[in-house]
């Protein structure tokens, strides 16, 4: 039975960063990923806020370079789907569809995914006017109209943030009342750049290469409203904030979690020795590429230290 020093579950920015640091530290490392490497960032056409990216950087180009670094340091990779984990004891087991893999340490970097807003045209315009991250994409909508879908804390906070860039921000919420904290609501109501369309849902987003219009429905009276882009702009932005779901179901009952997010300390350590979590899957205040790669680096360094301690 082969026993790796480290198994990394997930090959997004956090997992790849952990792989780079682990490989460079000469740890015998395996990355397990069921889909394409990169995770959510593959849907990002432009990255402006990653340090050092002076030219136009895209999610795929950044991930391609990370993948090459992982190869350079001799990290093994396998495409497989994790179905169960055994995390207790000195040797951890990761059961997948094809095989069961074993290691002294585990870094869980499965990420999280935005809950779809559930409208026709959503997949087509993802990354082409439809976003789920104001911090990531807000600056691309400078001077344009923007629509925010949702009524919770995140939606209203992101709407407030988007007023820094947008010409006008309109919050679309399916209920008569927002769900955000009253203090956040009051800030939004006072902001002259924010409008509200309550009791309303988006039925369809349409356009050619970018969003050019959308169809709205009032859930109380069934009235249909068509929204078209300002002819001078040619497009507008739609931001969905109906929730995020961490990919953590496998670890329920095994690790300490809060609202599905794995709880770690500042060194990415979970409540089980030798098990670390990194990136969007863990409880944290900011989910960005830069924080994901930092998490991955820390987790790999801590895994190395854990293995060294086992030898003493």
UniProtKB/TrEMBL annotation:
Entry GO MF terms: thioredoxin-disulfide reductase (NADPH) activity
Cofactor: how and how many bound: Binds 1 FAD per subunit.
Keywords: Disulfide bond, FAD, Flavoprotein, NADP, Oxidoreductase, Redox-active center
Location of the FAD/NAD(P)-binding domain: 4-296
Subunit structure: Homodimer.
GO cellular component: cytoplasm
E.C. number: 1.8.1.9
Organism: Sinanaerobacter chloroacetimidivorans
Primary gene name: trxB
Catalytic activity reported: [thioredoxin]-dithiol + NADP(+) = [thioredoxin]-disulfide + NADPH + H(+)
Annotated family: Belongs to the class-II pyridine nucleotide-disulfide oxidoreductase family.
Protein name (record): Thioredoxin reductase
Superkingdom, natural source: Bacteria
Coiled-coil residue spans: none
Cofactors demanded by this protein: FAD
Biological processes annotated in GO: removal of superoxide radicals
